[in-house]
Specification:
There is one protein chain. By secondary structure, the protein is α/β, with parallel strands linked by helices. Helix content is 38%, strand content 13%. The mean pLDDT is 93.
Amino acid sequence: MAATDQVPVGSGFHAKSTAREVLQGIDLSGKHAVVTGGYSGIGLETVRALAGAGAQVTVPARRPDAAKEALAGLSGVTVAAMDLADITSVRGFAQDYAATNSKLHLLINNAGIMACPLARVGPGWEAQFGTNHLGHFALYQGLLPSLRAAGGARVVALSSTGHVRSDVIWDDPHYQSRAYDKWEAYGQSKSSNALFALGVDLRERDNGIRAFSVHPGGIFTNLQRHLPDEEMVGLGWKNADGTIPEMIQAMFKTPEQGASTTVWAATAPKLEGKGGVYCEDCDIAPAATAGSQRWEHARAWISDDARAEKLWAMSDTFLASA
């Protein structure tokens, strides 16, 4: 894959399209999906849309009781316990899923944390890299036999425009020797999510599995829970009086609009034969140029096969000791 593959396909949708609009006319009856973080924010809207189109959806949740409450009344949705920060938990979920569902058509790695204070998970991993990337990497590995058995599957990894902030910090991804920067760490994890999707696609396209990374857009959800109001004012996301600036209102999306690129990447017929690319606003994102704004387009480092392979090897090494 190269930046030259980052070419929009003319989806017919746009930044404010909703997940339900994207799925109009698409029948997912008989399809099985797993959606991490599928009980709040854009994850919840993703589950609602997929289930509404007929899919059987499993939602692995760190807080199963909260998930069951949020998803009550949705048909075809199952909740199971799993914590992405606990690799034993992830592996246990994948083993249990494979024992009851031989086929998996859609794996949507939606859950994540953003810009949190320094914390460590597993054997000392930095929490954003460990949760957003390594937890999902382990989940994919455990579910791979079911994805292959589907005879055609898609993997969607939620990246972010945050990838612009940082490539993978190859010599110190867990901040063991460098000063911790919560936004740099978030950017690293989002670049990793995109490179993970590229790595999946490179490995599994001949087995009928295609993978995509997506930027859902700016959305106010629980993802901002670690950001105090004064920081969001500094970022320009809020006014000092707590109101939302007009420009941000125009740019940001509702959760249902934020779920649209995810479900588009998971189901769009126009993506047949394609994979490994980064998507935004319900289309393949253009490759970034000198004229790109900081919140748009795919930076070159997430379209680099060599980086995807390097991250894969690194991740295998980390998980071997977990």
